[in-house]
Write a structure and sequence with these properties.
Radius of gyration: 17 Å
Structural class: alpha/beta
Order of helices and strands: EHEHEHEHEHHHHHHH
Oligomer: single chain
Distance between the termini: 35 Å
Helix content: 40-55%
Largest sheet: 5 strands, parallel
Shape: globular
Strand order of the largest sheet: 2-1-3-4-5
Number of helices: 11
Length: 220
């Protein structure tokens, strides 16, 4: 059972998402919160697998919630998925840096929401192509992070290839197809790269790929 926490200051959004999610046999909404502070408290109480968190809320916004979740060892197994009204607003980049596992636009189709929750529960990143492109554009003007050079040297060629494909938004199954390997082997390459680069999750791995220069906008 995938346990979900809803954190949004709009009751209509919460009720709509709950109504849809609760219809599924493998998904359960364990709690709802109208602001980030309440959401963080409920997260610590219920320990959900996924928290769908609005990026802009009173009392505590989604970015601060994400930072505190990432810093709390008790919540290390919980994935924060940011809810936004736009495909990419000025706060999304900061949320990704803070540790968000992905992003959903609030007008998402019902079947896409269900798919996204299941993907996030598996630990895969939720980076839609539109968001990935804008993330890449943001890095065009960013200086490269040379502090990752030593960690990059530890990656094998296959692990580098897997990271580049993750940065394009591909799932493990899609990476396996591109690399002509089994999905299990693809997952192993990705997980080893995450360990060597100290990535919290796949979304963080994408950030590190661009920050280090391992992947450039031309590659994607």
């Amino acid at each position: 059972m995938i346990r979900v926490l809803l954190v949004d200051d709009q009751p209509l959004i919460r009720s709509g998402f709950r109504a849809l999610l609760d219809l599924e046999d493998d998904i359960e909404v364990v709690a709802e919160a109208a602001d980030g502070k309440e959401g963080l408290s409920l997260a610590r109480r219920h320990l959900p697998d996924i928290a769908l968190v609005d990026i802009q809320m009173p009392v505590m916004d989604g970015i601060e919630v994400t930072r505190r979740v990432a810093a709390d060892p008790a919540l290390e197994r919980m994935h924060v998925v940011i809810l936004t009204n736009y495909g990419m607003d000025e706060y999304v980049f900061d949320a990704l840096r803070a540790g968000a596992a992905g992003f959903l636009v609030k007008d998402i189709l019902p079947e896409d929401l269900l798919h996204a929750v299941r993907v996030a529960a598996r630990g895969d990143a939720l980076l839609a192509p539109s968001i990935t492109r804008k993330l890449i554009n943001r890095y065009v003007t960013q200086p490269l992070n040379s502090g990752l050079d030593k960690a990059l040297e530890e990656l094998t060629n296959r692990e580098r290839e897997a990271v580049a494909l993750v940065a394009q938004g591909l799932s493990n199954d899609e990476i396996a197809g591109r690399m002509v390997i089994s999905p299990l082997t693809a997952k192993t390459h990705v997980n080893r790269a995450m360990t060597k680069l100290h990535a919290r999750d796949r979304a963080h791995l994408v950030v590190l790929a661009y920050e280090s220069g391992l992947v450039t906008p031309r590659d994607s």
